[in-house]
Amino acid sequence: MKKLIIILIITAAPGFQYLTAGVDEVLSFMSKKNVEEYIKPLVTSLGVGLNSGMYHTAEVSEKISGGFSMRALIIFIPEDQKSFMPYLPAGYTSGSTSTVYGGDPGYAYGTGGFVSYPGGFEVDNLPMGFPQMTLAWKGTELSAKFIPTQKIGTEREEFYFYSFAIKHEVTRYFKKLPFDGAVQFGIGKMKFSDQLDFDNFVINLIASRKFGLFTIYGGTGFQSTRVDANYSIAGDPDNADPELREAKDVSLTIKGDNSFGITAGTSLRLGFFVLNADYTYNSQSVVSTGMSFEF
User: Fold this and answer.
1) Which of 37, 58, 132, 228 has minimal CB crowding within 10 Å?
2) How far is CA 16 from CA 67, 218, 263, in A?
């Protein structure tokens, strides 16, 4: 359980974010059915996090333009994602136990003795940060954020992350509309060693309107995040849970609870410099801020 550590380090110079989770010891003592519910809130967090801060306007330049920005955000973990009802062998009953974000471990007693479940790490919110680059021309904008392969922590676990998105301003074809509108598609991938491999997809519908130096913007988006988890059960012949008595390799796919989200925010442009902040309502809500240099 000591290896389940979530680390966030934002190095200001290159602006890279390092996020790693060592989960091997925890997962090796959990059945496949319980692993899914235990780490699903983390899958959801990475989805809503990586899909936040993707835009601060629907407008896209007709001329060649580009920019660089730093995004910082906080994901708020709701109480109902800190616990779940575990799968139990026949002859057992118990209450809920902790997810990765919960607190104390859970226990159940039945005909075969005690069955225990790992505790969580009492997380109320999760900060994240990442750099983003953009390139636009004729109403279409490409954006990218990535971290090259790194070896993180004392275990030297492999970590990398990338995300690409394309945004097109559709209101450029309708000159008399009082607002700007755009559609955006994005894909992303994040890998934690050989155990957790995340894939992400998002589509956003965006609208914005200028008021002098300020822009009011908002959007709605559909997200899909999943993780392919691969781990090994240590095996304990005396375990009360039959699922944990034999050593074996386990593979499963876990989908996050992030589906539809609604975003509202505002930005301030001072020449090449843009500041923005927004709030996204989803299964885990997010407050996002950004600082951009655009040319």
Assistant:
1) 228
2) 17, 27, 25
Write down the domain spans for the chain: 6-294
Q: In 47-59, which positions are buried (b, 16+ CB within 10 angstroms) versus exposed (e)?
A: bbbbbbbbbbbbb
Alpha-carbon dihedral 288, 283, 222, 187, rounded to 10 degrees:
60
Stated pTM of the model: 0.87
| Total length of the chain | 295
> Which residues make Cβ contacts (< 8 Å) with residue 237, sequence separation at least 6?
245
Given a cut of 60, is residue 255 above it in pLDDT? yes
CA 218 to CA 177: how far, in whole Å? 16
Question: In sequence order, which residues have a C-beta less than 8 Å from that of residue 238 and are 6 or more positions away?
Answer: 245
Q: Is 21 exposed, middle or buried (0-12, 13-18, 19+ CB in 10 A)?
A: buried
pLDDT computed for residue 77 by the predictor: 94
- Residues 261-280 have pLDDT tens digits of 999 999 999 999 999 999 99
Instruction: Give the whole-angstrom CA distance, residue 6 versus residue 16.
Output: 16
pLDDT in tens, 196-245: 888 999 999 999 999 999 999 999 999 999 999 888 888 889 888 888 89
Q: What is d(CA 51, CA 280) in angstroms, rounded to the nearest whole number?
A: 10
